[in-house]
Write a structure and sequence with these properties.
The complex is a heterodimer of chains A (145) and B (99). With 145 residues, chain A is α+β, with helices and mostly antiparallel strands. In chain A, 34% of the residues lie in helices and 28% in strands. Chain A has one domain (6-139): Histidine kinase-like ATPase, C-terminal domain (Heat Shock Protein 90). In chain A, strand 4 and strand 5 form a beta hairpin. Chain A starts with 5 loop residues before the first strand and ends in a 6-residue tail after the last strand. Chain B has helices at residues 20-37, 54-69, 81-88, and strands spanning 2-6, 9-18, 41-52, 73-77, 97-98. With 99 residues, chain B is an alpha/beta fold. The two termini of chain B are 20 Å apart. In chain B, helix 1 packs parallel to helix 2 (54-69). Classes of the chains: A alpha+beta (145), B alpha/beta (99). The structure holds adenosine-5'-triphosphate (ATP) and magnesium ion.
Chain lengths: 145, 99
């Protein structure tokens, strides 16, 4: 992969209030690439899914940190990495199946499906007791050089 | 969150951003209204919702379950295209009405 034109890295506590905060930060960063409103919404939704998963499943009742890296590459490709050092996923392929959830009534098992449908590429790396890294890639059709 | 009850029909007006952080409070309020009025029809109005992720799906499914246990049907209205797309992924359109 070529060198990024721009990037940011940050980490925050795994508090649910940071779901909205990280949506706002990522959408502000992506705005630099002049995306359409539709593309911004897609990215916000996908980021929200990954961050929520880190909080709800990765750390559960515990508190940890969520690490987020975003980079803008030439050709207007945005790559966003969301990482937690939580419980990890035993079987990633199974976790990614639509409607699969290990949580109760409030979760629908659609997070990964949503990430997939609103980005161009989703990759998930995870190891039990180590944590999870979700990488979202999306091409922005904007006119930024 | 505003609610209106008329002719045994309870409308819940959702607004702002629906995510895991905000869903808890919405759920509590909606459920207490459903239990208080035991309506025949529950309308979840999304017209003023500015953002929703899959937590919104869990929210709708949960309210549908509570309502249908009391013989109440569930209607969702005012959805933006993308939010509708997310809700449809769950196959919810077989159980609730999109209006
Ligand atoms: N960061 C993570 N750490 C540990 N487990 C995870 C993580 N992300 C996802 N999972 C596991 O993968 C499952 C599927 O995730 P997905 O986001 O698709 O659905 P969900 O979070 O259960 O429900 P929804 O996203 O619809 O509210 C989760 O139930 C959980 O078991
Ligand atoms: Mg999820």
């Amino acid at each position: 992969m070529k060198k990024p034109i721009n990037d940011f890295k940050m980490n925050v506590l795994s508090k649910s209030v940071n779901e909205g905060f990280l949506r706002a930060v990522t959408s502000a960063f992506c705005s630099l690439a002049d995306p359409t409103l539709e593309e911004i919404s897609d990215i916000k939704t996908a980021v929200s899914e990954a961050v929520t998963n880190a909080i709800v499943h990765g750390y559960k009742e515990k508190q940890g940190r969520i690490y987020i890296d975003a980079a803008l590459y030439p050709d207007n490709i945005i790559k966003i990495k969301i990482r937690d050092k939580g419980c990890g996923i035993e079987d990633v392929q199974k976790a990614m199946e639509p409607l699969f959830t290990t949580a109760g009534d409030d979760r629908s098992g659609l997070g990964f499906s949503v990430m997939e449908s609103f980005t161009d590429k989703l990759s998930v790396r995870s190891a039990p007791n180590k944590g999870t890294v979700v990488t979202l890639t999306k091409k922005i059709s904007g006119k930024c050089e | 969150m505003q609610t209106v009850i008329a002719d045994k029909s309870l409308t819940v007006f959702l607004s702002g951003e629906i995510d895991h952080h905000t869903a808890g409070r919405i759920r509590e309020k909606a459920d207490s209204e459903i239990i208080k009025y035991s309506p025949k029809e529950l309308i979840l109005d999304f017209s003023d919702v500015t953002f929703m992720d899959s937590s919104g799906v869990g929210l709708v499914i949960g309210r549908y379950k509570l309502a249908s246990n009391n013989g109440c049907k569930t209607v969702v209205t005012g959805l933006k295209e993308r939010d509708k797309k997310i809700l449809m992924m769950s196959g919810l359109q077989n159980k609730i009405e999109f209006r």
